[in-house]
Amino acid sequence: MPAADPPESRDRGPSVSDQPLRSAAFRWFLGGQSISLAGSSMAPIALAFGVLEATDSAAWLSAVMSAALVPMVAALLFGGGIADRYRRDTVLRLTSLGAGCAQAGVAFVLLTHQHPAFLLPLAAFNGIFQGLTKPALRGIVANLAAGRGIQRASSLMASVGNTTRIIGPTAAGLLTASVGGGWAIAADSVSFLLAAVCFARVSLPPLPPRSADDPTMLGAMREGWSYFSSQPWIWTVTAAFAINNGLNMGVWQILGPVIANDTIGAEGWGLVQSARGIGALLASVVMVKLTVRRPMGPALASMSLAAVPLILLGAGANTFWLAASAFVAGVVAEFFTVVWVTVNNTHIPERLLSRVGAHDEFWSFVPTPVGQLSAPLLAAAFGTAAVAVTGGAVAAVAMFVPLLVPALRRIEINRNSE
Q1: Residues 6+ apart with CB under 8 A from 365
Q2: How many degrees, rounded to 5, is the angle at CA 356 between CA 237 and CA 406?
């Protein structure tokens, strides 16, 4: 097992146990996150086809997606410092309010047919709030569950969230095809506001007062980087996902809707996305009970299958084969996600969870704007099919590279956490 600090034993939150559903705080958190995800699962499809309807331009779609993603990535490291320095429940309710307001603005622009340039600052604000949210979500599980309950909590969160991802994309496709994507974005706005209400019922203990010896915000962020960079079992996986995300987000999120718009339509694309959600739901339900002693090898190797939909997309596969491959991709991606969250929460000190998680998110997403902006240019130069197939092949190979690190293959789920 790689050298990693043991989990800290200080008070992590209210009613922390290995049975997270017994905690009212966890139930409110789970409810809020599920409502938020229900709306967010509709947003990508609604926004993509809404922008294409208004502009008929892959370049505009790329610009809007990148306008959200770049600020999100930029805010991640700062968000990690905030989430480890202040109460994570407070962070979540404030960022949910902000994201709800930003999405309300996006819905207004789409519903009233304003110039798509107005979407850029609104997307940027939404990206900032998402960047501040992600590190808090990475760290709060350790405040609400302990021991074997960490994997149970992660699996329950994934199960409920994946249920929404099954219904959301199909609903977004139907709404977009019938009345336009603006209404799906409006639903996402409402979901953020309702989530903020739920998060207000999650009350974590006050943090101990900071002493004069405590590091500043910048010092705390440097401490997070120092730990992250000293743990090969973390940063090698992050590097692999940097490649994977850049290719997936560029090909699947940008070229995917463009190809679907001319072939299977918004309804078919929504069904494909829902199939991925069904696969993810199945995996998350199984992972409530299943524990793999040395999980990182199987988790990373299976993640190579998540690139198959990109290859089939470039090969011109029909809705059935795209949906089938997306289902498998959902299974393996969720298996990896639950394993990764559990390993992080059992091997990283609780006080560093959000900062280390922020570095994991930041460096794995840095190439994504490059992928999104370059995808239309590469497609114009080499053809959409060639870019999709090549991107899928490279993404699959990238998942095997971290397994060259022996310590990563040996990392275990601690017996005392089961």
Answers
A1: 69, 72, 73, 76, 242, 245
A2: 35
| pLDDT tens, residue by residue, 303-358 | 999 999 989 988 888 889 999 999 999 999 988 988 888 888 888 887 788 888 88
Q: What is the pLDDT of residues 189-248, one digit of tens each?
A: 999 999 999 998 887 777 666 666 666 777 778 888 899 989 888 999 999 999 988 888
The sign one gets for the Cα dihedral 42, 355, 221, 241 is: negative
Contacts 24+ apart (CB under 8 A), 412-416: 412/1, 412/293, 412/294, 413/151, 413/291, 413/292, 413/293, 413/295, 413/342, 413/343, 413/346, 414/346, 414/347, 416/147
Within 8 A by CB and 6+ apart from 371, the residues are: 245, 246, 247, 248, 249, 250, 251, 254
Angle made by CA atoms 32, 360, 211, in degrees to the nearest 5: 80
**Alpha carbon 182 to chain centroid, angstroms:** 22
Token pair for 241: 């996902």
Residue 18, pLDDT score? 63
